[in-house]
Design brief:
With 525 residues, this protein is mainly alpha-helical. Among the domains are: 99-246, no CATH class; 251-290 and 460-497. Helices cover 56% and strands 6% of the residues. It has helices at residues 2-33, 62-66, 73-76, 90-138, 148-171, 185-210, 217-244, 273-287, 297-308, 323-338, 340-380, 391-412, 421-433, 438-446, and strands spanning 251-257, 263-268, 465-468, 481-485, 490-497. Strand 1 and strand 2 form a beta hairpin. Helix 1 packs parallel to helix 12 (391-412). The longest helix has 49 residues, at 90-138. The relative contact order is 0.10. The chain crosses the membrane at residues 111-133, 153-172, 184-204, 224-244. Residues 36-45 have a biased composition (Basic and acidic residues). It holds the Pfam family Strabismus. Belongs to the Vang family.
């Protein structure tokens, strides 16, 4: 526990030191400037330093700290954090209320569909049993004896209903993975088909058996068996339409993220646009690296700097004799624009050098920390069982030795918003529990992983909107383009049909591979 307190004091010390040092500097500056002020009514701006409860390991503003910092920035730099005020307008309130209404509508639609499917399934399973029991209840004395044949049919019906129940539970009663904007067409058609089928059987049963009170009980039982057999065939049709039809690859889709251009290719079968979008999103969370908006700030700052260097002068104004000088300044700005690639080259080279340097420091620090863990384990084996340290305490003990190197590396690679101190401690204790190597511990931080690797509160993509010119219930076709939008970026999906491949065969005679080697009788000496 003492190691954990030392760790927290390490991070909280930066804020206290920052506030006191900045305050002393401001007081000294005001003391030197006070003789020059006449009225002494200089206004001061107060800065409030607050730490959010679930603060990441580092501050979110890494781009400004990255500009012009040296390798000893932690010892020579004073950082100040401030709070910003946010306002909300009537449009935001209306949008939030609309989103709430849409979410309530989606929940109602989901539960309504489940209710209809459950009621229809219960009706399907009770119908064969009702066909068999109703004659026994209403006109039992008038029925013809059936004997052993009916008893064997009863066993057959029981097992068929059990198989149908298990198959229906496995196919239909699964937890939904997403809320789709439209109904699933094939599922709705199957529900309508089952309803019409059961309704027609009940209609025939009421007219031909209940009204006339048919006494042929064996025929009534066979009628119920035919219903169960037909339901089994409908279940087989549902498996073909819902599961097997989409397995064969027919289309290839290219998914491109709009912000950084990262792309992936996937093969899909016969699916509707909304179900293809669902498959794309499932693969996105697994295959695409996590979206990091901090990586885009460097290019934006370079673009802003470039636009600030371009100026426009009015060379045609009346009485302006400096037109030649203005043209020279415009030409200088153009030459500066042409040399921007050199700036980009040196910036990227310097950033890569800094990343490699801090990565090497991090690797060395983590290896030393794990070596210390091995020494602690050797010492713990000699102690009593009640005095042994658990993995959480061991992680808190070695974390301060690697915290600074990890902090600098995450800030340099702009990953600080995805890793809180608590998550790092949990991952470190997990690696210690499973006897993992330092490379296994660093794998999460050296290479940005997929979105599923991080906590859900760190995701920038939770709710998606499907934009398509075609109806979302229509099937995929060659050339179809649809967009999946979230708050900060979008996924552009382009569909291409797999071409028809014509494969021919060419026969090669086995004798054509034979050859004769002839040696000359005379050889040179």
């Amino acid at each position: 526990m003492s190691a954990a307190m030392d760790t927290e004091s390490t991070y909280s010390g930066y804020s206290h030191y920052s506030g006191h040092s900045k305050k002393a500097h401001r007081q000294g500056r005001d003391r030197h400037k006070s003789p020059r002020s006449k009225d002494g009514s200089r206004s001061e701006k107060s800065v409030t330093i607050q730490t959010p409860p679930a603060e990441p390991l580092l501050g979110n503003d890494a781009s400004r700290a990255e500009e012009g910092q040296d390798d000893n920035w932690g010892e020579t730099t004073t950082a100040i954090t401030g709070t910003s005020e946010h306002s909300i307008s009537q449009e935001d309130i209306a949008r939030i209320s609309k989103d709430l209404e849409d979410s309530v509508g989606l929940d109602c639609k989901r539960y309504l569909g489940l209710t209809v499917a459950a009621v229809l399934g219960l009706l399907v399973f009770l119908t064969p049993i009702a066909f068999i029991l109703l004659p026994q209840i209403l006109w039992r004395d008038d029925l013809e004896p059936c004997g052993t044949v009916c008893e064997g049919v009863f066993i057959s019906v029981a097992f068929k209903l059990l198989i149908l129940l298990i198959g229906t539970w496995a196919l239909f009663f699964r937890q939904p993975k997403a809320d789709l904007p439209r109904v699933f067409v094939f599922r709705a058609l199957l529900l309508v088909l089952i309803f019409l089928f059961v309704f027609s059987y009940w209609l025939f049963y009421g007219v031909r058996i209940l009204d006339s009170k048919d006494t042929n009980y064996q025929g009534i039982v066979q009628y119920a068996v035919s219903l169960v057999d037909a339901l089994l065939f409908i279940h087989y049709l549902a498996i073909v339409l819902l599961e097997l039809r989409q397995l064969q690859p027919v289309f290839t889709v290219k998914v491109v993220r709009s912000t950084d251009g990262e792309s992936r290719y996937y093969s899909l079968g016969h699916l509707s646009i909304q179900r293809a979008a669902l498959v794309v999103l499932e693969n996105y969370y697994r295959d695409f690296t996590v979206y990091n908006p901090a990586l885009l700030t460097a290019s934006k700052s370079r673009a802003a700097k470039h636009m600030a260097g371009l100026k426009v002068y009015n060379v045609d104004g009346p009485g302006n004799n400096a037109s030649g000088q203005s043209r020279a300044m415009i030409a200088a700005a153009a030459r500066r624009r042409d040399s921007s690639h050199n700036e980009l080259y040196y910036e990227e080279a310097d950033h890569e050098r800094r990343v490699r340097k801090r990565r090497a420091r991090l690797v060395v620090a983590v290896e030393e920390a794990f070596t210390h863990i091995k020494r602690l384990q050797a010492e713990e084996q000699q102690k009593a069982p009640g005095e042994m340290m658990d993995p959480r305490e061991a992680a808190q003990a070695i974390f301060p030795s690697m915290a600074r190197a990890l902090q600098k590396y995450l800030r340099t690679t702009r990953q600080q918003q995805y890793h809180s101190m608590e998550s790092i401690l949990q991952h470190l204790s997990f690696c210690i529990t499973n006897n993992m190597t330092p490379k296994a511990f660093l794998e999460r931080y050296l290479n940005p992983g997929p979105t599923l690797q991080y906590d859900r509160d760190r995701w920038f993509s939770k709710q998606w909107t499907l934009v398509s010119e075609e109806a979302v219930t229509s099937g995929l076709q060659d050339g179809v383009v649809f967009v999946l939008k979230c708050l900060d970026f979008s996924l552009v999906v382009n569909v291409k049909k797999i071409p028809f491949i014509k494969l021919s065969e060419e026969f090669i005679d086995p004798k054509s591979h034979k050859f004769v080697l002839r040696l000359q009788s005379e050889t040179s000496v």
